[in-house]
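Re: the pair you flagged

First of the two:
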Amino acid sequence: MNSPANDLVALLQQLIRIPSPNPPGDCRDIADFCAAYLRSAGFATTLVAPDDRAWSVVGVLGEADSPSLLYHAHIDTVPLGQNARWSVDPFAGTVADGRVYGLGSVDDKAPLAAMLLAAADIGAQAERVQGRLVVVCAAEEEVGGRLGTKWLVDNGHVPACDFVVVGEQTQNRVATAHKGVLRAAFHVAGRTSHATDPWRGRNAINGMAHLILDLERYQAEVLERRPHPLLGPASINVGVIEGGVSANVVADACTIRVDRRMVPGEDPQAVIAELEQIVAARQAADPERTYTVGEYLVSNWFQSDADSELLRRFLRISAEATGTPPAPVGYLPGSDAKHLVDVARQGMVVFGPGTYEVAHSTDEFVAVDELETTYRILRHFAAETLLA
């Protein structure tokens, strides 16, 4: 008979061997696999999509509304990349030196495998279930989740549950908050002229240089003075700059695109107002150019209630299994947790093996011992909460 550890590694290998890169985002094959796995474990399953690519699975075991748990992991991965030079086959699920390698091995097929196997363990004891276990295998997380988890929630496919666990890379620490993001574009319009006498024009790139320094001061003098206790300060990063047509022409237009990370408690509209105030101040200082900001895209933050009884239980079980303090941490990247806030009645955590620093990288891997610990914690928590 296979041990649970062997079953877990084998299951992760099966998931890695079903490519699900996004883009293009075709998750039908891996969704079919997850649906079949959950059905064989006794779950009622729904396989749904808003289009012909973004297939997700919702599995439900048990009928009572409470206590109820939701285990969520995403089934899409980032693309392989044009210049990726892996030392192993990224779709083989190679095991070496206590690690499982492969595209999506840690993000997010390791939490997915742990959740599926833990769910199967509970399904094998279905007659003892008092409550409900929901497992969501969601498409589209890697591109924001709007056609995945957000669509599932908005269209009534995900029932409200007492407690939600979102599988991501936290090194098996329990994260109760993550940052949100606001994207924006800043534009400077100047006046073109020949570069031989540039003072006849108004160089938009020069104007943008001053605006970027304004944003640096905003980071140092505003954002870093109001840190979040788990996530540290909010941040702003200039990720793209575009401007000018030729070295011998004074640039009449320049654009930057920024990533403004929000910490829990920040109102996106207040953040937008701060950015617009920076632009207004620069405009007042330089009336010979035109400064604007817009094209906002918002992905919200998440923060869970620290006083939940179920959260305290999850922290205790995790601390016992890992030897770490029973205290929550913050998760710096985003996740689908932001789409599940209205589904979680008594709390939600982000939790799983490995680190996001390994995700999205060549020779991505998850350590087998960490993966096994994730599985044991998820199984223990579900059993203690749901089994009579």
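Second of the two:
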Amino acid sequence: MKKIVLTSVVLLSLLTSVGCSKHKDEVRVTEPVTTEQTTQDNKKLYKEAGLLTFKNEKQLELGELDSKSRATYAHIQLKDSDEPKDKREAKLKFDPVGWHNYKFYFGDGTKEAWLMNRGHLVGYQFSGLNDEGRNLVPMTAWLNTGAFTGTDDKNQSSMLYYENGLDSWLANHPNYYLDYKVTAVYKDDELIPRQIVLQYVGIDSDGNLLEIKLGSSKEKLDKYSVTHVTLENVSANAEINYADGTAKNTVKSAEERAAEQKAAEEKAKKEAEEKEAEEKAKKEAEQKAAEEKAQQEAKEKARREAEETTEEVEGSPRDTNTGGYFRDRNGRWHRPNGKFASKKEIREAGLQW
């Protein structure tokens, strides 16, 4: 009896062992197929979306310098714990092609600030790269830090706005990855980029893409949930020659403005005085002309009256006397020269008035 029971137990154990072994083999066969398919799908999706393939580890890809020695792009995929722990060195030694710098006046012209920065494509807080030429381009301070001097991470036209926003996103999602690419956009053979284009998206632990919106009006979302932003490499206080990196200050100093204002005021005063003098001279000339005209008219009137008197005298019978006095038809006495004679003269001449 004991032998039968033991034999049954052995047979049952063998059957169970065979069944379990068969189940484990099936799992080992099917699991790799599923994982490989998912990986292939993700690779295709990431490639279409312009992303680095998800490997669940930090990745950094730097575009090579082009034929003009210009930095092209930088692409990183990382999570919060991958950020560099070392403090960045204050000074950069590498000068990107086209690099020039100027201290320009800004605002009301009372202060100056450096126009350009050696700007990182992917910021040091993500890449840990400082003096890497493939990651540096000439950027205006306005584009890089959001201000003419100091920083303003509220300025949506600046790199700093997005860098700090993405840094916060990583801190709030420590188990997720950020895929972040920055591309410099040049026009033809110019050495200074006209624009900087950002693209970013989150990735969860399963490799799914997560939309990231930082609240900027410049953000545009594509069909893959990747956010794109285009920033202009400009500064309101400068006219930049993108071909070679030279620039001209378009804001005048407060001293220049004051001098110009004073000159303008003096010019306006002089013009006002000249206008006043011209108007006065014109008025005087008009007055003189009017007086001369009146005098001329008076002379002309006197001349006509004299002619009329002469005509009357010549055309009228005359009462004459030895003194040469004569009387016209109206009985008026005249001197020998034709002018009227006074009563006194007539009486003295012994004539009857």
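Residues 100 and 164 are 27 Å apart (CA to CA).

-B.
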